[in-house]
Amino acid sequence: MISTFTMSGMVIQLLISLLFPVGLLIYLRKKQLFSWKPLGVGILIFILFSQILEKALHIFMIDSSGTSLKWSDSKFFFVLYAALSAGIFEELGRYFGFKWMLKKHREYKDGVSYGLGHGGIEAILIGMFSAINALVLGTLINSGVFDQTIAKSLPADQVAMLKERIIGTQFWEYVLGGLERVFAIAFHIALSLLVLLGIRENRFIFVINAVLLHALIDVIPALYQTGVVTNIWIVELVLAIFGITSIIFTMRIRKRYQSKDSLPL
């Protein structure tokens, strides 16, 4: 059985993943720091480059275990691939979106809005939907019909693994899952501003920096996924540091956008 307390953690993750991006959108609109088209392009590019193109490559590169490559059992190569693929696909996608789809959107608010679109849809697809999935499975387990429903459509070992994961996940882990989305949105806004600044100032090195920073933040989760790092609090601490640093960067870089030395090309 899954306790009501744990189920409430699922609800908290769901609410944070949905309400934080929506609330941030409302706040940015009131502060006149929002534009719709960059938001939409951010959503579109994330789905195309991350959820379609990157995942298509994963089919050929990652084996069914999800923790190693098809051609190597090396954890090092898996972590390297996982980190770089995320950085390359998402940041080059971000560059493509700004360079060719948002030619007339080069202001600070456009970078912020794009980042919100990118991070917001990720929060919904990963944070909210995974919480909904956990709620549904938890309800099936508590009502005693899990084996009669889910078990019929999956192999026995996958059913046992899925059930064990849902039962074993604690309240605080779901809450952390929601907070991760907050840090991730802050990170995506910062990287969007960095990539856009590179386009404004014709400095592609900023795009490369964004790729490397994105890869760097994905190293720790990949190490946790492969079992090299076993303490989840280390992962969350690193993500929190990146998130807080991203907020500071986002606030400070605004002056650079307003400077005459950084005019759109």
From TrEMBL:
Would I find Transport among this entry's keywords?
Answer: no
Q: Provide the transmembrane region boundaries.
A: 6-27, 39-62, 74-93, 114-136, 182-199, 206-224, 230-250
Q: Name the InterPro entries on file.
A: YhfC
Transmembrane found in the keyword field: yes
Q: Could you tell me which species this protein originates from?
A: Bacillus methanolicus (strain MGA3 / ATCC 53907)
Please state what the protein is called. Answer: YhfC family intramembrane metalloprotease
Identify the keywords attached in UniProt to this record, alphabetized: Membrane, Transmembrane, Transmembrane helix
Q: Which domain of life is it from?
A: Bacteria
Any Pfam family from its record, for instance, is: YhfC
